[in-house]
Amino acid sequence: MVAWVVTLLCAMTLLPTAANADNPIIQTIYTADPAPLVHDGRVYLYTGHDEDGSTYYTMKEWRVWSSTDMVNWTDHGSPLSLSTFSWASADAWAGQTVYRNGKFYWYVPVKNRTSGAMAIGVAVSTSPTGPFKDALGHPLVENWEIDPTVFIDDDGQAYLYWGNPRLWYVKLNADMISYSGSPAQIPLTTQGYGTRTGNTSRPTLFEEAPWVFKRNGLYYNVFAAECCSEFIAYSTAPSPTGPWTYRGTIMPRQGASFTNHPSIIDYKGVSYFFYHNGALPGGGGFTRSVAVEKFNYNTNGTIPTINMTTTGAPQVGTLDPYVRQEAETIAWESGVESEASSEGGMNIRQIENGDWVKVKGVAFGAGAASFNARVASAANGGNIELHLDSVNGTRVGTCGVPSTGGWQTWTTVSCPVNGATGTHDLYFKYTGGSGALFNLNWWQFQAAGN
Ligand SMILES: [Ca+2]
Ligand SMILES: [Ca+2]
Q1: CATH code of residue 227
Q2: Is residue 224 part of a domain?
Q3: What's the whole-model pTM score?
């Protein structure tokens, strides 16, 4: 009786969070400064990486993630780091990637080793997931300010904006790695960027993190306002260079991180607002996590107030279990980490007894007959348990994983599946002995009757 009550109370207290939380969208590491890019039907999400236990903006690399449903996010690792820029010494801070003419250009602020100043570098790749290389071998611009955002107007003219404490722009040339004219300041007037009510150390609400885009002929600059803590506000203009009109708050001060960082995209006909907070365990101002919300523009083009949630954006469509899915495609997880795989892409690692991964909205249809997984283990292996709807929900299969003689020595294991029909959240629950059990690269179900 007592045990039953305790179990029920635990279930009532913990399960709503565990079962429904999909925000923040990355849990394997701390992430910050989201910059999404829609390309070829997929959302690529570029972020920074806060080191575990960080007590400053200790950031050494950037990361890439992608999704086609806004809830299951695939880890593409770190194709850009401080070491990409031979002239950079520290501070892998907030950047943005844009696409033009078959190439991806990633603009980032870093500290110039020689001058000691913050500068904007640009890296280039032919793939959205890299690898990226330094396009110039030196800063694109350098004036001690940070937070680049790049916008390409309908006429093909590209603009680089950046700044903290001031707000700058320059016209990029079509090659995206040089500019014409000199950097100019956007006047920070209260008409354009709002009136401070708290600390008056700056002329307006503008703090940092501009994100410029165009919608229905109107130019938007969404930015982090009035540190600390920051809220997210925006201004609009009839041209990419102004004049700007302050439009108010989008996201109030929320979320256990004293910074925030906005970005906005449309994907599959829906508008999304990305930001960061300190919502993960151990999270805070220097251990941040990227999250996302769905929103609708008002009919006059203004942006409504958007609050942080733990549920996040709804899933777009479902996930197909009958094609290869990466083990590092995750809606939520407990206990696992990732690394580059010898077979390409990433695999998950540090899988210990009781760790689990949730994949949301898996469409089994008429039913799955079997399950394959690509595994490696230098230890004794373990088990992959397949559960529906919760980590201890209906078990539809269990795959044993053997020792393979190495953490990157891969083999494919198979096991029968019973009772997986319709659409469910799928939980991989890993069990076995002590310590790291095995690594997992990818998985795939086979449909009954095939
Ligand atoms: Ca673990
Ligand atoms: Ca993989």
Answers
A1: 2.115.10.20
A2: yes
A3: 0.95
Of the listed ligands, the closest to the CA of 336 is 1
**C-alpha 309 – ligand 2 centre gap (Å):** 29
- Give residue 231 CA to ligand 2 midpoint distance, Å: 37
User: Do residues 330 and 442 share a domain?
Assistant: yes
Question: For this structure, is 33 an active site residue?
Answer: yes
For residues 67 and 275, give the distance between their C-alpha atoms in angstroms, rounded to a whole number. 16
Cβ atoms of residues 73 and 48 within 8 Å: no
pLDDT tens per residue, range 389-422: 999 999 999 999 999 999 999 999 999 999 999 9
| 275 inside domain | yes
Parallel, antiparallel, or unpaired for β 179-185 and 168-172? antiparallel
Q: What total of structural domains would you count in the chain?
A: 2
Q: Is residue 213 one of the residues assigned to a domain?
A: yes
Q: Which tokens sit at 262?
A: 């906005």
Segment 205-235, tens digit of pLDDT? 999 999 999 999 999 999 999 999 999 999 9
Please name which of 28, 36, 30, 65 lies closest in space to residue 49, comparing C-alpha atoms.
Answer: 30
* Boundaries of domain holding 261: 25-295
Residue with tokens 């575990």: 52
Same domain, 182 and 97: yes
Distance, in Å, from the CA atom of 236 to the CA atom of 207, rounded to the nearest integer, reads 16
Ligand nearest to the CA of 353: 1
Is the same domain home to 70 and 193? yes
